[in-house]
Amino acid sequence: MKEVGEKKIPKILLYVFITLSTLISIFPFYWMFVIGSNTTNAINKFPPVVIPGANFIENAKLVFERIDFFGAILNSLIISSAITLSVLFFCSIAGFAFSKLEFKGRDGLFIFLLATMMIPPQLGLIPNFMIVSALGWLDDVRAVIVPGMVSAFGVFWMRQFISSAVPYELIEASRIDGCSNFRTYWNIVIPAVRPGLATLGIVTFMGAWNDFLWPLIVLKDKSAHTIQIALRTLNDVYFTDYSMILAGTFMATIPILIVFLLFSKQFIAGITDGAVKS
Length: 278
Hints:
Elements (H helix, E strand, L loop, with lengths): L1 H35 L3 H4 L12 H11 L2 H32 L5 H11 L8 H11 L6 H4 L6 H14 L2 H9 L4 H12 L1 H17 L2 H6 L8 H6 L9 H35 L2
């Protein structure tokens, strides 16, 4: 009986820790809803309100009146989806080449790729803007999609994942069967690294959805605004309606939660895959 009790205590502590961690993670989202469902006057009270109010629908209506909320959501969805799909394709095929193909200068190119991750992205704003402007892509979603179609981190992530998930023997067997490199990549590598793709897809989608600086620079037309830029325009010069802004922010966060819930199982598998391999 003592041994059984000793085994139960760590599990109880683990469940308590997981519960507390979950509550701490959910609290900011809950707090957004609390502020978004109250008035700004109620928010400024001390102690602050901790119970949702009855003004969420009114605040949401104000958001819809001030900005083209659904148009901005659509723009963000198009941009984020396009960037995510292109990153998954180009990064996975580059990761396959760096991990399983032999070619001259492979290691040097990979080291150079890793070195680019140390360069702050802000340093590329001016040259990227000059290129986009010369192409005539200002106020066009292509100005945001094309620069984000591939990422150094994505190539590194997929290279490491493919190296551990796909043995060389499987690649050699496909070559003996007459498969080309692309067919090997598409029919053998892709099914084996789906957890890694799901993890990279969620991280990329969230990054593209929350991106603010670059879209703010190249998308000046209101019809091309992403949801992050549109929410920024809710701020007034002399008065800031925090309840309205947080109501809009709460609604803008829902698509990210939906994407995470749809791919959460694959995301967890991708994160833990390396830990369970012998």
